[in-house]
User: Which sequence fits this backbone?
């Protein structure tokens, strides 16, 4: 019973974390200083929200087929697995968080690299995530990499741009 309680508590914290970060990314919430630091600690947010950041929006390709093929429980599990793949691969290079935005979208929020060399490694990192998702889960992801963001207070503008660009799926998506 204590294992089940711990699991429920962990699941609930992830939901709270996703919702809180989602509100910031959408520009619906504005936090500063002590409140920001307290929430980062309380929700176990890995990305330092007071430093420059990058966002990468992942969208599941063939989402209608995904809906038709899997029931709701399986879709949640597969999306959780995709989130874990993104987090596992990214966290070896950057402090990051993955946010389940809605339906076909997962957002990677990560501390921005300090050097040009690390920044150029972003595309291969995204390609590794796409490859692992395809290999392990037989799912295809499109990715849109956002411009660097200097402040959490401007992240909603970059997210709006990334979301609009993700609708085109020109380069490595379907």
Assistant:
């Amino acid at each position: 019973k204590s294992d089940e309680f711990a699991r429920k508590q962990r699941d609930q914290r992830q939901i709270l974390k996703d919702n809180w970060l989602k509100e910031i990314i959408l520009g619906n919430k504005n936090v500063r200083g002590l409140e920001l630091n307290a929430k980062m600690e309380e929700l176990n947010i890995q990305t330092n929200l007071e430093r420059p950041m990058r966002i990468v929006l992942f969208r599941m390709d063939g989402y209608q087929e995904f809906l038709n093929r899997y029931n709701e429980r399986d879709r949640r599990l597969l999306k959780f697995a995709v989130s874990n793949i993104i987090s596992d691969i990214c966290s070896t290079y950057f402090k990051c968080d993955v946010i389940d935005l809605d339906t076909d979208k997962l957002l990677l929020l990560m501390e921005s690299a300090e050097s040009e060399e690390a920044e150029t490694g972003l595309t291969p990192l995204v390609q590794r995530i796409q490859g692992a998702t395809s290999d392990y889960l037989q799912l295809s992801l499109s990715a849109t990499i956002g411009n660097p963001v200097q402040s959490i207070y401007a992240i909603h503008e970059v997210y709006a741009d990334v979301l609009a660009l993700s609708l085109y799926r020109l380069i490595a998506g379907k």
About this structure: The chain has seven helices and four strands.
